[in-house]
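We close this part of the discussion by returning to an individual protein. Part of our work consisted of pairing the sequence of a single chain with a tokenised description of its backbone. No coordinates are needed to read the tokens, only the vocabulary itself. The amino acid sequence and the backbone structure tokens for this protein are reproduced below:
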Amino acid sequence: MATAFDPYDLGGKPLANRIVMAPMTRSRAYGPGATPTDLMATYYAQRAGAGLIVTEGTQPSVVGQGYPDTPGLHSAEQVEAWRKVTDAVHDEGGVIFAQLMHTGRIGHPDLLPDDQLPVGPSAVAPQGQVFTHEGPKDFVTPKELTEAEITRTVDDFATAARNAVAAGFDGVEIHGANGYLVHQFLAPNSNRRTDAWGGSVDGRIRFAVEVATAVAQAIGGEKVGFRISPGNPYNDIAEDGIQETYGALVARLAPLGLAYLHQMEAPGVRDLTLRLRKEWPGTFILNPFTGTDPTGPDELGLVEDGIADLIAYGALYLANPDLPARLAAGGPFNTPDRATSFGGDHRGYTDYPALG
């Protein structure tokens, strides 16, 4: 029987254990042109004991940025700056994937050059606010992507993946979850298109499949993960028929030979989790739903039970950089700040992470 502390082969890349550091943006890319800093290299190197680190959300293009001071992978300067991060993690024996996150309609003109509008599958404004350097501001109505712009956006993901490999990353994770662009195409309330990228389930999953296909062709499927969050309402997402939508999506992704499928589990979807686990032919990573508590030692048993191959930890990693060692010893655990952290995956502003 496998345990979370056993080694694992991820597409030919040996992992020291089956514990994953979930993507948690801290908005610390203070370098020129949204470049990573020495602080970020230290932060990730401290957590290199994870079997796999997935970085904070990293924008594949200028217009893909939705939060202040988040890093990109779309310029030569960013590629060079990321090398100090990947080198630091590799020096500590770690494995690190870059999460490619286009925020889509979750953003604001104040965060983009020349007051550009955020973009989305449809011109539908989400409810809520986004952080800017001037504080929270209401979301705006995004610009609906044209067919040509959709094609360019797919190309941006592929280019960013090549840049990630050039920067020394072991692979990339496509962020198809938590209300950002890929998820916006999947959800009927944010995707009201009537062309080939909307309407039916096949239409709404098309963009996600195109992105995954392009990225896999660019760097090899064994270096590509894909993240989903079926039924997660974050960022004003409403999804009906998640069994049909995600069953179809997984069926289309399966032949691509991806490194893994990474599910952030929403409340009440364990039946779908078990179905996707069964239908996914490769490595299955689970960021399990744990309510208001962070994923903890009790969730290690999900590997032993065969529900997941690897388990992703979010909030507990913020407070415990040596988390695998503490999990193995049964603690003690530093307590994450409950005023600023939510169980599982996180996005944030400076040191105030928000679910993302």
In short: The two ends are 33 Å apart (CA to CA). The mean pLDDT is 94. Residues 128 and 278 are 36 Å apart (CA to CA). DSSP finds ten helices and 16 strands in the chain.
